[in-house]
Design a protein that fits this description.
Elements lengths: L1 H14 L1 H4 L5 E4 L2 E4 L5 H24 L4 H13 L12 H7 L6 E4 L3 E6 L10 H4 L2 E4 L16 H15 L4 E5 L14 H19 L4 E4 L21 E3 L8 E3 L1 H12 L5 H39 L1 H36 L1
Parallel strand pairs: 1-3, 2-4, 3-6, 6-7
Antiparallel strand pairs: 4-5, 8-9
Helix pairs in contact: 7-8, 8-9, 9-10
Length: 350
């Protein structure tokens, strides 16, 4: 992936940059890792390792030409303990290092949450794994808000620290925040997403503090405009500023309260003062009430229409069930069984 990225950067640089004056960057996800115990050197090093294995895995080769030294050390040592002649971490030739280094006009950052990190030794018997290679454990504070995704806790101060880490580690590159937001995990029609407005307020404030620290942040993008398909969670977790009614074949969209709130943040380029921000919040809550009523009424009509369709056209509904449920389920099972069978063959071969 890193070599493909470098190829794109050099191709643009050689063929189009002089005419278009454009930029090519890369967008990487990065959570912040905070030591559990600041008096423990092992915890401090483990937190550094967490970030290097996460963001540094891709950012360090692009800015410095090679993988983080701590990744090379830990994965090399674990590989040797597992009886391998060479490290499981690939190596770059001198030519490849030179080709990859500096291929970033800006760095995109996707950031959502933070973890507390402590040292934890994993023996080689645990087998090769990205997680055991790091020799650390991730912890969360039970007081951190967690409105949606199981992995996503609201920890605003981690955002500022991550941005300052990038500034210090990589020479203060131009940064565009390409993803930042929070989900909710609910099936009801509640559009007054107070927790999302609070998340945006606190995280954007921490970003503004980072800018005052001298971090070269050029732009910010909320994640996401619409509710969408969320990896292995499907449509059950909603990150959107707009609610999408997936049960309706037309997929109508309804603004959540965070739409009006975020719009005012953008138009003001930040927060003029606390009183004004509270006023935005109040007006946003007022607008979502009418949207809630519209969505509830529409979903009642959709439910009634679906019941009538099932009564009058059972064959169509049966075919839809086969297409939408049975076929994907069977395909998934086939993939899982194939993977298990392949693992069995590989172990038998070894």
């Amino acid at each position: 992936m890193l070599q493909a990225h470098a190829k794109v950067w050099h191709t643009y640089d050689n063929q189009w940059r002089s005419k278009q004056k454009g930029m090519v960057g890369i967008s990487l996800n990065g959570d912040w890792g905070e030591p559990v115990d600041f008096t423990s050197q092992k915890d401090i090093e483990a937190a550094e390792r967490y970030i290097q294995f996460y963001l540094g895995w891709f950012a360090t080769p692009i800015f410095n030409g090679d993988y983080p030294q701590v990744m090379k050390d830990y994965i090399g040592r674990k590989s040797a303990q597992q009886g391998l002649g060479t490290s499981r971490l690939p190596t770059f030739s001198s030519q490849e290092k030179s080709y990859i280094k500096g291929t970033c006009d800006f760095l995109g950052i996707g950031h959502f949450t933070t973890r507390y990190i402590t040292q934890k030794n994993f023996p080689a018997s645990h087998g090769p794994s990205y997680f055991t290679d790091r020799d650390l454990a991730e912890l969360v504070d039970p007081r951190w808000p967690d409105p949606g995704s199981e992995w996503l806790y609201s920890v605003p101060w981690g955002f500022r620290r991550l941005l300052n880490f990038v500034k210090t580690q990589y020479g203060n590159p131009m940064i565009y925040v390409t993803e930042n937001g929070v989900s909710e995990k609910m099936t009801c029609t509640e559009l007054c997403d107070d927790w999302r407005m609070q998340y945006f307020k606190e995280y954007i404030n921490e970003m503004l503090k980072a800018i005052k620290d001298g971090v070269n942040v050029k732009g910010y993008t909320a994640w996401s405009l619409l509710d969408k398909f969320e990896w292995d969670e499907g449509y059950s977790e909603r990150f959107g500023l707009y609610y999408v009614d997936f049960r309706n074949k037309n997929k109508p969209r309804y603004p959540k309260a965070s739409v009006q709130y975020y719009k005012r943040i953008i138009s003001s380029n930040g927060f003029p003062n606390q009183k004004e921000a509270e006023n935005w919040h109040r007006k946003a809550i007022e607008t979502c009430s009418s949207s809630n009523q519209l969505l509830a009424a529409e979903q009642q009509r959709t439910t009634a229409a679906n019941i009538l369709r099932l009564i009058h056209d059972p064959l169509t509904s049966h075919m839809e069930m086969v297409t939408e449920i049975v076929v994907p389920t069977v395909c998934t099972l086939c993939i899982l069984l194939s993977a298990i069978f392949l693992m069995f063959l590989l172990r038998r071969h070894n």
